[in-house]
Amino acid sequence: MLFRSVDSTNFLNTIQKIADNPATKEIAKKDSLTNPIGDIQNANSHPKILPSIDWDMGKKSYIMKNDMLVLDILAANNWTRPVYFAVTVGPEAFVGLENHFQIEGLAYRLVPYETQSGQPRVNTTIMYDNLMNKVKWGGLDKNELWMDENNIRMALTMRMQMRTLAMSLIQEGKKEAAMKVLKKELEGLPERNIPYYYDPITYTYYLIQAFYMADGKDDAIKLSKRFFDILEEDTEYALSVRKKESGALQSYMDERIELMQQLISDAHRFNADALAKDFEGRFKKYESLAAPPQQQQPRMRRK
């Protein structure tokens, strides 16, 4: 299919004339035998391609130059080349196009169909190839390195994206492929370089959850034991601080206690009975600190 966009000058003029600058515009499509944007037309594996895409930047009294640049690119591109947004930038850079994103690795690709769940669609075929075959680890998987905060944060993004791919493969019934991805994560992002205690600490829990769901019970148990040790150490640290300053590190401690409860719950759920028994025995000393079930807020959402 060939995709036809309006002239960029008219496009930007239209944006400026719309009340409150919602930046809403259609990009029309025209039937053809070819598809210049690639791998989005197979009806068996992709949602229905839309006749046009609409988006809204929201009610704003202004529009930034960088947003104008993105909109100009979209208007002039004519779908002849893929348009990507990095997963590491803030949502304000997406100019309201999130409902038309497909994730293929460390980037979102703009595609002419809407997501089904409000989350970017995962193209498991492309993403698997990118993360499993094309990524160059550059020694992160081999050497003990000193990693500064920015490097760790980037590596954690990779950890989360690999988990996202694994969960999508699980949903497609491809647990063997999901296990390969999760094993690659352990190999490529070892704890010695990318610590499991680094925030967002929930990323480690999501990884454990994925191993359980991919039928990697042994790996999940091993990782759970290590993670529970970290959570316990963190909780003891918080309690030591609170002896001198009551009320300090409350959210920090609450998060760790809740994650310990989650590990216990998952151990029961996946029939890791010995592990659950061990964790329950160690958790008894913290039971009085745990919030009642009705007060706990769900945190374990799929990313």
Describe this protein's structure:
- The chain is mainly alpha-helical and 303 residues long.
- The chain is built from 9 helices and 6 strands; from the N terminus they run E-H-E-H-E-E-E-E-H-H-H-H-H-H-H.
- Among the domains are: 2-122, no CATH class; 228-303, no CATH class.
- 47% of the residues lie in helices and 6% in strands.
- A 4-stranded mixed sheet has the order 3-5-4-6. It has a two-stranded antiparallel sheet with strand order 1-2.
- Helix 3 packs across helix 4 (149-171).
- The longest helix is centred in the C-terminal third of the chain and has 28 residues, at 217-244.
- The radius of gyration is 23 Å and the shape is globular.
- The relative contact order is 0.07.
- Residues 1-38, 40-44 and 294-303 have low confidence and may be disordered.
Specify Rg, calculated over alpha carbons.
23 Å
- How many beta-strand elements? 6
What is the 3D shape?
globular
Strand content: 5-15%
How widely separated are the two ends? 32 Å
* Portion of residues within helices: 40-55%
Which residues form runs of ≥5 with pLDDT under 50? 1-38, 40-44, 294-303
Oligomer: single chain
Number of helices: 9
Q: Overall pLDDT, averaged? A: 81
Order of helix and strand elements from N to C terminus: EHEHEEEEHHHHHHH
Task: Tell me the strand order in the biggest sheet.
Answer: 3-5-4-6
- Characterize the main sheet: 4 strands, mixed
SSE class: mainly alpha
